[in-house]
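Our platform keeps sequence and structure together, in a single record for each protein. This encoding replaces a full spatial description with a residue-level series of whole-number codes. We quote a single record here, exactly as it is kept in our systems:
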Amino acid sequence: MRPTAIVDVEGPDRVPFLQGQLTQDVKAMRPGETRAAAGLTPKGKLLFVARLHALPDRLRLLLRPASGESVLTHLRKYAAFQKVTVSDSSDAFLRVGLYGAASAEDLPEGATVLPGEGEFVGEILALATVRDELGAWLSARSLRPISEEEAEVRRVEAGRARFGQDATESNLPDEVGLDEAISMTKGCYVGQEIVARMRTYGRANRRLVGFRFPEGAISAGSLLMLPEESEPGKIEQGRVTSSVLSPRFGAIGLGYAFREVPPGGRLICVADPSRGAIVADLPFA
């Protein structure tokens, strides 16, 4: 099961309302379609990252559990003078990430397959009332649950940033590589001016990257510097946000490197200069 928060937006103004709140082109979405989306501050910083699922009568935001309450409060604040209702539907659904291909054939009523993201080839969103039937459906196809540790390794291997860990309110969307979540053709939305200015006149000073740790794992939260830096820690050139031990790739992680550090470039850990981090493209290969 994927822990999730679900926020539903209903009412005749739901499309124009979210069109002005999200980076995604909501007007272009058809019922049944799922796209990445984000909400920004007026300064272009991330408020939340979500998957947006369009239904005939509502727009559904799939979020990290930690984001649910704040997104609900945020949208309700701006919905006060719109013909929309914003509700928490988290307890009504189950969300299952699929790592292998699975046909939607014979799914329990009240369950649907959504397209994948990152390490997932797809996911199932099902009414909580069909938990037992969904469990039987998964078992009949020899689909086994995996541990949190294995799930974290697969997430890092795929290079999928987790909001609240690899991406926070301090980040611009371009730093996190959220290209699929941002429409460059839609009209105004909160933070749009900053996003457009960044893409027209400049580029982000840092970007999300993969790290390989040849001398052993460097823990999340560690600062990185250039090997030739004479005053350790004075000039930060990178930061580790996730760190795992992958059976395929060894000690690897996610984090940020400043734009002057190229793929293949080496940084060292400020706290332990004997350990290095090699910048890698994502996903790991």
Summary: The radius of gyration is 20 Å.
